[in-house]
């Protein structure tokens, strides 16, 4: 069964603040992320996040999925954490991770994707999420 | 049986779609899906930054489109990166782009049609970056 991949990204700039990921690079207004026609399951998500290391602090990052496209209601998924000891010179490149979920979805309905930094404020955090749908 | 296509390129501005058509010494590799191949089975993605811009933080993602990709454009995030400028006289850590290998991708493609492979970095500009991808086709 073929899979379909839809993505959103954004930047989280405050701790404990639900931040909608609503853009996709050069697409500044891609519109709602709709469950593709015929899709029955959110098979997995791929997610990645990176702080800019502007603050000597440590925190966690998670994704919130909400909206009418999720038959069973909202889900929250932890995707990573980072910390740095000094606010100068921090640098990293981080791999995305794929997590299998099998969440039932409703075709043509919207899924809202949010990111959040919790724990300590780690500065600005870029986050990207891909939803992997199967029919 | 599998076939592959590998491309790479530089991304030097945020929120800018960069079409990837290079393969090192081969300047124009064929982007036609090989005959008989009907799926993308695996994707290998790499990315790294030079970190020359302060307060950088980006997400890298791949766009697969063109006539060959069935089901519309597919977008996949694969890396993120961040950077701070070091104190004067200090060294800074390298940015290592360990490959992200995605198995069982299962994207339907049309054999003998052309695939469009592009990439972006989104967020706050960390300086220059390089990305590279291998698509593994199958049936």
Fold and architecture overview:
The complex is a heterodimer of chains A (135) and B (139). By secondary structure, chain A is an all-beta fold. Chain A has one domain: Jelly Rolls (Sandwich), CATH 2.60.120. Helices cover 0% and strands 53% of the residues of chain A. A four-stranded antiparallel beta sheet of chain A has the order 1-9-3-7, with no helix packed on it. In chain A, a hairpin with an 8-residue loop joins strand 4 and strand 5 (75-83). The radius of gyration of chain A is 15 Å and the shape is elongated. Chain B is an all-beta fold and 139 residues long. Chain B has one domain: Jelly Rolls, CATH 2.60.120. Helices cover 0% and strands 47% of the residues of chain B. Chain B has strands at 3-11, 18-19, 39-49, 56-65, 74-83, 100-102, 107-108, 116-124, 129-138. In chain B, strand 4 and strand 5 form a beta hairpin. Chain B is elongated, with a radius of gyration of 16 Å. The relative contact order of chain B is 0.41. Classes of the chains: A mainly beta (135), B mainly beta (139). Chains A and B meet through strand 1, strand 3, strand 6 and strand 9 of A and strand 3, strand 4, strand 5, strand 7 and strand 8 of B.
Please sum up the structure shown.
The complex is a heterodimer of chains A (135) and B (139). Chain A has no helices and nine strands.
């Amino acid at each position: 069964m073929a899979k379909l991949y839809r993505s959103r990204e954004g930047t989280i700039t405050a701790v404990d603040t639900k931040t909608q990921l609503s853009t996709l690079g050069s697409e500044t207004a891609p519109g709602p992320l709709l469950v593709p026609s015929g899709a029955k399951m959110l098979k997995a998500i791929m997610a990645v996040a990176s702080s800019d290391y502007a603050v000597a602090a440590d925190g966690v990052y998670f994704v919130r999925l909400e909206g009418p496209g999720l038959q069973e209601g909202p889900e929250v998924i932890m995707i990573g954490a980072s910390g740095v000891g000094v606010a100068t010179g921090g640098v990293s490149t981080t791999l995305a991770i794929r997590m299998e979920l099998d969440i039932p979805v409703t075709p043509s309905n919207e899924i809202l994707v949010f990111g959040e930094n919790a724990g300590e404020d780690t500065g600005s955090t870029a986050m990207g999420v891909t939803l992997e749908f199967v029919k | 049986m599998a076939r592959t296509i590998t491309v790479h390129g530089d991304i030097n501005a945020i929120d800018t779609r960069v079409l990837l058509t290079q393969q090192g010494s081969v300047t124009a590799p064929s982007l036609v899906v090989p005959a008989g191949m009907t799926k993308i089975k695996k994707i290998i993605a790499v990315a790294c930054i030079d970190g020359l811009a302060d307060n950088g933080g980006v997400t890298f993602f791949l766009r697969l489109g063109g006539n060959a990709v069935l089901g519309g454009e597919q977008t996949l995030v694969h890396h993120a990166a961040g950077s701070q400028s070091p104190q004067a006289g200090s060294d800074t850590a390298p940015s290592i782009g360990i490959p992200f290998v995605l198995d069982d991708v299962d994207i339907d493609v049309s054999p003998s049609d052309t695939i469009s492979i592009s990439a972006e970095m989104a967020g706050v500009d960390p300086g220059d970056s390089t990305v590279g991808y291998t698509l593994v086709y199958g049936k």
